């Protein structure tokens, strides 16, 4: 879907203690990958715990357009009858990836080494985002791309009829770029190599191996070297999607800044490529218990017991941690505003090319709520005001960005005056049950005029 016709203004007001158990839905990154790899595998892949958010539903629709049979068989349960590596059919119409950068970039990779042409578009947010970071490496396989100026959508990708394997060092730390190259490499003969200087989320590597691809990872002086042998015989899988640690961040941070709170969040990923926020919160002095460590859906997970203490301190978040918490900086900046002292986040310029320019969006909204923020191209500094001291009382722009909307609503729970967002509709892209889940914990978050 290309955008929302009707904005949904929402308000959060100062909350009493949050309590209860927050059952977080499936991981967005893993959900996209399960659908795409299922579609690239002959036979039936069954998925449970799929995130049924708009981003992932758009990817499901796209996989149908490329010829896979994709069916919802129950709550979060999906069946994909794939067409096999190199088996994608040419879509009859434009592929609309809605708000999803992950969806469009991974799908471009997956089709780029098949002799078909596809045109991609998305909502107003996605149409602003750079695609050159994907089409540059796809050109090395022999694919061609024709988009708007600056490499923006709508964009037509002409897949390579005779793809060659590629060795590519990613110029930006991006799991989407890495994954697009690996998915393209599936239908190239020989070995495709991706080198990343900093480790980014490794779900593609884990899942490609799980589907039977030959894939090795080595640490070298150049960085992480990932080698995929092309044209593997993939075997259909049963994929149990674990819960999304990026969604868990919202109730966790809400509990940490809302007086008297104590909540439990079961099954939160401890994958080191995803858990930078939790490391940072513990450094700030957060009271988080990591209980019952175990494996779920191929990911290390723990049950989080989160308690408000009112004694969080500002920290310096090192740049090398950025990739492991890239989606969590907006809500971290809210926690930082409610902590004592200054929090400095460095090495975060990738935040400027997300669903919105997240440094700008958070800085403007926090300032409107009475918080002092400094920014550079690559960093953000938040001057904490201490628990319960953020004035609030503003309406913040969400810029079609789910994480910006949810972050400001979390802030409203601990601010002195209500905090509103102009549009909460994008929350449905990644966390469709955010409102009932937060309400069940006791959070007064409501749609305006209802
Ligand atoms: C994602 C990678 C990250 C992240 C996005 C999901 C993925 O983007 O921000 O929400 O599933 O690969 P980048 O690869 O652009 O850092």
User: CATH homologous superfamily of the largest domain, by name?
Assistant: Enolpyruvate transferase domain
β-sheet strand percentage: 25-35%
- Low-confidence parts, pLDDT < 50 over ≥5 residues? none
The number of strands is 24
Distance between the termini: 25 Å
Helical fraction equals 25-40%
> Which CATH architecture of the largest domain would you pick?
Alpha-beta prism
Average residue-wise pLDDT: 97
Structural write-up:
It is built from 12 helices and 24 strands. It is α/β, with parallel strands linked by helices. The strands form 6 sheets. Strands 22-23-1-24 form a 4-stranded mixed beta sheet. Strands 2-15-17-16 form a 4-stranded mixed beta sheet, covered by helices on one side. Strands 4-5-3-14 form a 4-stranded mixed beta sheet, with helices on one face. Helix 3 (101-111) links the parallel strand 6 (95-96) and strand 7 (117-121). Helix 9 packs parallel to helix 10 and helix 9 (329-337) packs parallel to helix 11 (402-412). It is globular, with a radius of gyration of 21 Å. Shikimate-3-phosphate binds next to helix 5. The site of shikimate-3-phosphate (S3P) has 10 residues, from helix 5.
